[in-house]
Amino acid sequence: xxxxxxxxYGVAIHNWHGDCRHGLELDVGxxxxxxxxxxxxxxxxxxxxxxxxxxxxxxxxxxxxxxxSDPVVTECTQVLREWSEIWKKYYVERETYKFTYLRKxxxxxxxxxxxLLGATLTQDxxxxxxxxxxxxxxxxxxxxxxxxSRFR
Length: 152
Description:
Layout: E1 3-12, E2 31-38, E3 41-45, E4 53-57, E5 61-64, H1 71-92, H2 96-118, H3 123-150
Antiparallel strand pairs: 1-2, 1-5, 2-3, 3-4
Helix pairs in contact: 1-2, 1-3, 2-3
Protein name: Dedicator of cytokinesis protein 3
GO cellular component, one term: plasma membrane
Keywords: SH3 domain
């Protein structure tokens, strides 16, 4: 019997081809929202494949403890996901300047996010880096909205 997972999230640590009925294909690094559990199987969805719910083995997923997650890292992750869609659009539309500009900002955010996740910083360094990340996100949002309106 499937049991509700109460808003658990995880990350695929192995590729899984969905080799069973109702299987959800996953690639390494895919985030998954876990909806239900049944023994060694999980049922959930992957934001990369909206509206597709499927099952996958528990052993292929690293379940994340959201109680321990840093809200700045979470926000940074969400912003990078949103910006990646814009970045792809710029690539497809061959808008080289916008593509390069957004790439630079995204790489900077990725580096900062990596440092925060590394947990090797002192409290003061972490706070300072968190403030820089928030500032970059705010600046990037303002700049991309200005750039979008300027180039229309």
